[in-house]
Amino acid sequence: MDPEVGLRLLLSPLGSNIVVRTACCSVGVVLPVYSTFKAIEGRDENEQKKWLLYWAAYGSFSIVELLTDKILYWFPLYYHMKFAFLVWLQLPTTDGARQIYMNHLRPFLLKHQARLDQVVGFFYAQMSKFVSLHQAEIQFVRALLMKTFVSANQFASDFIRPERRNVSGAIEGPRQQQVGTSDSEDEE
What we know:
Elements: H1 3-11, H2 17-42, H3 45-72, H4 78-90, H5 96-111, H6 113-133, H7 135-160, H8 183-187
Helix pairs in contact: 2-3, 2-4, 3-4, 3-5
């Protein structure tokens, strides 16, 4: 596919939002996850800090978007603006994530740090209490999910490689007649 065609499809205001939404997910999550992995494995502290700032800015944006998405997505070119914003957050020339963090997020968090620590502590205590009170249910759901995952994996495996299906000796239907033989040859 010609890159110019792909760019035209992405930036077309009349095009499907599916293309732009997929691009937002790719640029906003997939590429940063891989870049974060590279920064961690490379032990480059500057890159690690850059991607921590990105995730702080992205997480804050996600919270705002969660609260406003039902209204904002009706605006023309909303996903195009979101795509541009996500690119802006990552570009080294604009250093958007650092700007968001230093100018907005950091001052807000510093101002409300004591109250936020109380809220976070309360939620962690409640989660811990919930988990300890519902261990049996959690184990049941875990076992159920594992069985579902194994069954889905087996189904997908059988679907992809049907020749491996009846290895267990299950009941099979009538065998197909080989090509080149006919009923009249069998009677002779």
